[in-house]
Amino acid sequence: MRDRFFDSTGAVCAVAVSTILLSHASDLLAAAPTQGPAAIDAGPVALTPTLGTEIKYRDNIYLQESNTVDSWIYLARPALNALLQDRNNTYQLDYKGEAAWYEVNSHNDRNDYFDNTFSGDAHLELSDRWIAEGYASWASLHEDRGTGLSEGFIGTVLPEPIEFDQSDVGGSLQFGTNESVGRLLLETGYMDRTYTNFKELTRPRDRDETTVATTFFFPVAPKTDVLAEYTFKNIHYPNRFEEVPMLDSDEQSFLVGAQWEINPNMTSTAKAGYVEKNFDDSARKDWDGLGWSLEVWMQPRDQDTILVLSTQHPEETTLQGNFIKREELSTTWRHEWSDRVYSELSGLIGQDAYEQSFDGREDDIFKVSLKAGYEFRRWMNVYAAYGYDRRNSNADDLSYRDYIFNVGVELSL
Predict the structure, then answer these.
(1) Is 28 helix (H, G, I), strand (E, B) or coil?
(2) Which pTM was predicted?
(3) Rounded to an integer, what distance in angstroms lies between the CA atom of residue 38 and that of residue 30?
(4) What pLDDT, in 10s, does the model give residues 189-224?
(5) Which residues contact 3 (CB under 8 A, 6 or more apart)?
(6) Residue 133: CB partners within 8 Å, gap ≥ 6?
(7) SS3 category, 284
(8) Checking DSSP bridges between strand 400-412 and strand 249-263, what pairing results, if any?
(9) How far is CA 130 from the centre of its chain?
């Protein structure tokens, strides 16, 4: 369990550092851009601090079907990016924090949290035909009460959010260019998640994942490639529940599809194929079926940008079943009403099927949000948003509705 003094004091320090950088760096600024945050010129490195503040109201913070609890929430999001560019090669270090203070708190029951993420990545163009990328990150995060391992009644019983540390490392190597006869992409990644509190409940859900993938692109027309993708993922749970079958498994997928650019204002990637999940423990039933992924980006007019995403894939379960078969369709539409005024409308529909759960659990998910913003200055953006989140589940006491309203300010140099 994290120290509560560190949570509050660390959050205040992070916000204070960002505020000092934002207010006293004018003499160190590089040439300010016409749009977006400006950077501090620190020799070969460009430092870009930002700070977001937000007031949010939620009417169901524990995501309960009945006896809901509402609360005002106050958030601060400090961030710092360090960028080093050497010709076509780039190296970045990032820090992102999010601190939240809830009005609904008591001495023995708190919802406050302070998340921190440190990451770095590199993009190297080794030659005209070879491109390498790498990334690494470490994060100290939380699950909102009523989500993840604390969904349902558990979310009201635990006195604070479930917390975990997560490390990610990986990279990719690409041979070929968009103009060459073929292009080969090799990817690998490793993730380790360790829960840090309520160990009797969370320790058996610690896990690590190792992923390798390869994709071959073959051009069939100008700006149009067909692709074939193979992915292998090993999922390992080092600490198992006693007398409960292990959740360790291997996932494999083979997808085929296409990537195309109809015009500069519309690009798409679509792929579908065979997916299987095989468990190490014979007491758990293996699964195979159809998987797909769709991404469409379009800009029908200069002031409109639309993004459509769809996927079907297996996800690790929380508390029920062998795994979750997830289907999702989401879309986001951003409209620029003027140089300073914009709006964003987002929606998501989905279904989570908890395979081999004792009650055949299925959740229907619906989310919609509307955000309106005003770029008061290049370095200041103010916004207001409204969101609606609903889950209809055939499992007892797991359905909920949550209404969310928030206003915020985003500051930069």
Answers:
(1) helix
(2) 0.88
(3) 7
(4) 999 999 999 999 999 999 999 999 999 999 998 889
(5) none
(6) 121, 122, 123, 124, 171, 172, 173
(7) coil
(8) unpaired
(9) 28
